[in-house]
């Protein structure tokens, strides 16, 4: 590896938004239910793109918003006004480090206050099941302003699977982001061949040479890349060096198959790549410098020692849509995952 010595650390960043959004739709998040969605659909809360707005786009329900908007509440017979809520299943369960409530484009119709609760339930609970869950307030009732992204750090040392967004009393919220650390269910990993580089299994990019166009964590997302922007892409190098990213695997294991995918990268794929196992100060080549083709899924069989971190070098620069490292956890890794999951579930 050559080039820049800068090593951005994406897992120890003081800003919690450096952690993945556990609720985003592209990672499997879903809005299961809401008290009301008269003006704009609840599903918009988890859209992966930035909120958009086009003035004067009126439909049968009024101005169209890229967010969730409820009807205006009126006091009931008992004089109570009540409040609106949306129930979200996280795409990836984990430790929540912070929440973003974004009222983008809602200027005269935003809620003055909001709060967030979280819970953990095994399996695939319905909204009715979740009504009986033990909910923990992770963001207390807090003031909001219009057309603003509000960031709320969260201190909670336990695993959560669902969150409930409450707004008081009504109005519109464009996006809900729930940033945190993925804690996979070890029952889905142990004794199987799994993708050790998958974000959903707990892998993360811990550093890279450049992330000018998009985050290197995108390489670890599930499914195929939707477009050119849905992977990792670096700026054009002019110094004769190469770009790289270091991936902390879901847990130490042995790799049997590597997949390097340049889908959609037709004119900006790297010319070649290499894979290297990292263990402290020791580097072990896994795949030597190997040519890549644009817009292609490449697969390579390999036999690796026990590996905890892998460096992907690309030559000289460009984009990678997805990186898959299929293999098996070691027995010791399986035990560590089980113990951590058990402790975080217990809270």
Which descriptors apply to this entry?
mainly beta, single chain, 2 domains, 2 helices, hydrolase, EC 3.5.3.4, seven-stranded antiparallel β-sheet, 21 strands, eight-stranded antiparallel β-sheet
Distance between the termini: 42 Å
Tertiary shape: globular
User: Architecture of the largest domain in CATH?
Assistant: Sandwich
Give the fraction of residues assigned to helices: under 10%
In total, the number of domains comes to 2
Strand pairing plus helix content: what structural class?
mainly beta
Fill in the CATH topology of the largest domain.
Jelly Rolls
Q: Please compute the radius of gyration using only Cα atoms.
A: 22 Å
Q: State the total count of DSSP E strands.
A: 21
- Specify the biggest β-sheet: 8 strands, antiparallel
GO molecular function, one term: allantoicase activity
Family: Belongs to the allantoicase family.
EC number: 3.5.3.4
Protein name: Probable allantoicase
How are the elements arranged and paired?
Blueprint: E1 30-34, E2 58-59, E3 62-63, E4 68-69, E5 84-102, E6 113-119, H1 127-130, E7 136-143, E8 149-153, E9 160-168, E10 172-173, E11 175-182, E12 194-195, E13 204-208, E14 232-233, E15 243-261, E16 272-279, E17 282-291, E18 297-301, E19 307-315, E20 319-320, E21 322-329, H2 331-346
Antiparallel strand pairs: 1-5, 2-3, 4-10, 5-8, 5-9, 5-11, 6-7, 6-9, 12-21, 13-15, 14-20, 15-18, 15-19, 15-21, 16-17, 16-19
């Amino acid at each position: 590896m050559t080039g820049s010595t800068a090593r951005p650390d994406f897992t120890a960043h003081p800003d919690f938004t450096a952690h993945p959004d556990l609720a985003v739709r592209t990672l499997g998040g879903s809005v299961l239910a809401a008290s009301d969605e008269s003006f704009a659909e609840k599903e918009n809360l988890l859209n992966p793109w930035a909120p958009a707005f086009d003035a004067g786009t009126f439909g049968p329900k009024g101005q169209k918003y890229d967010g969730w908007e409820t009807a205006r509440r009126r006091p009931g017979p008992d004089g109570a006004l009540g409040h609106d809520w949306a129930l979200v299943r996280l795409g990836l369960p984990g430790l929540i480090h912070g929440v973003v409530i974004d009222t983008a484009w809602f200027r005269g119709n935003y809620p003055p206050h909001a709060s967030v609760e979280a819970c953990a339930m095994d399996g695939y609970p319905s909204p009715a099941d979740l009504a009986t869950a033990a909910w923990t307030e992770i963001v207390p009732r807090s003031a909001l302003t219009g057309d603003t992204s509000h960031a709320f750090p969260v201190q909670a040392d336990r695993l959560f699977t669902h969150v409930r967004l409450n707004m008081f009393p009504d109005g519109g919220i464009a996006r809900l982001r729930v940033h945190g650390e993925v804690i996979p269910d070890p029952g889905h990993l142990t004794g199987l061949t799994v993708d050790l580089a998958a974000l959903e299994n707990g892998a993360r990019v811990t550093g890279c040479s450049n992330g000018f166009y998009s985050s290197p964590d995108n390489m670890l997302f599930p499914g195929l890349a939707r477009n050119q922007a849905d992977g990792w892409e670096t700026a054009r190098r002019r110094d004769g060096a190469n770009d790289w990213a270091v991936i902390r695997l879901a847990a130490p294991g042995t790799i049997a198959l590597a997949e390097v995918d340049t889908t959609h990268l037709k004119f900006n794929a790297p010319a070649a790549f290499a894979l290297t196992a990292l263990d402290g100060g020791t580097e072990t080549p896994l795949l030597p410098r190997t040519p890549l083709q644009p817009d292609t899924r490449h697969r390579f069989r390999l036999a690796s020692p026990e590996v905890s971190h892998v460096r992907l070098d690309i030559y000289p620069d460009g984009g990678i849509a997805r990186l898959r490292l299929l293999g098996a956890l070691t027995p010791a890794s399986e035990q560590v995952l089980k113990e951590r999951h058990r402790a975080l579930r217990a809270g």
